[in-house]
């Protein structure tokens, strides 16, 4: 039996290359880890398009997108759904359970390779758990959290952790941006 190496904090983030919604017309543009060198990357996985909890997270991150951009960070959402499903969801109004107006790219992990390499693949269902990863400008994985599909993530906590990582020192419990480091 071959042992598979998963993403580990403090080590290079697993490489990825996936089709994306970067060009919503053609859906033929891929994105890769290398495209984000020189900036912070918040890479998050979610189970399904057109679901119940997922749009709350996607829209919450989108509503705060400018705050991420202000600290040199990009966001990518990933599921195992196709880019065609992503496009349909992106074009569906929010009042109809869509995510129209989302400000960042969604990527498609149809092969499940990226979800597996980040340790979030539920193999028997072919979907990803809710995993969130922060990768630094050099491509090193600095933060990883994975949890149950029923619980949405906190945008406040994601931003707090991102800014703590960028602070470059020791940040105590409940540290907030602008506070002294230990």
Please explain how this structure is put together.
This protein is α+β, with helices and mostly antiparallel strands and 182 residues long. It has a single domain, classed as Glutaredoxin (3-Layer(aba) Sandwich). It is built from five helices and nine strands. The protein has helices at 54-63, 65-70, 83-90, 113-117, 155-167; strands at 17-20, 30-32, 40-45, 73-79, 105-108, 121-122, 127-128, 130-135, 141-147. Strands 2-1-5-4-3-8-9 form a seven-stranded mixed β-sheet. Strand 4 (73-79), helix 3 and strand 5 (105-108) form a beta-alpha-beta unit. It is globular, with a radius of gyration of 16 Å. The chain starts with 16 loop residues before the first strand and ends in a 15-residue tail after the last helix. The model has no long low-confidence stretch (mean pLDDT 95).
Q: Helix and strand layout, with pairings?
A:
Layout: E1 17-20, E2 30-32, E3 40-45, H1 54-63, H2 65-70, E4 73-79, H3 83-90, E5 105-108, H4 113-117, E6 121-122, E7 127-128, E8 130-135, E9 141-147, H5 155-167
Parallel strand pairs: 3-4, 4-5
Antiparallel strand pairs: 1-2, 1-5, 3-8, 6-7, 8-9
């Amino acid at each position: 039996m071959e042992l598979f190496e998963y993403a580990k904090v403090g080590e290079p983030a697993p490489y990825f290359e996936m089709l994306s919604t970067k060009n919503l017309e053609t859906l033929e543009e891929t994105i890769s880890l290398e495209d984000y060198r020189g900036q912070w990357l918040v890479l998050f996985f979610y189970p399904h398009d057109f679901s119940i909890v997922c749009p709350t997270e996607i829209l919450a991150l989108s509503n705060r997108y400018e705050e991420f951009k202000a600290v040199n960070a990009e966001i990518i959402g990933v599921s195992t759904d196709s880019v065609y499903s992503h496009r349909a969801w992106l074009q569906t109004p929010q009042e109809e359970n869509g995510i129209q107006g989302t400000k960042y790219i969604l990527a498609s992990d149809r092969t499940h390779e990226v979800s597996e390499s980040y340790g979030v693949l539920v193999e028997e269902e072919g979907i990803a758990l809710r995993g969130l990863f922060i990768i630094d400008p050099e491509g090193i994985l600095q933060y990883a959290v994975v949890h149950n599909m029923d619980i949405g993530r906190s945008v406040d906590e994601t931003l707090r952790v991102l800014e703590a990582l960028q602070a470059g020192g020791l940040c105590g419990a409940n540290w907030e941006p602008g506070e002294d480091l230990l």
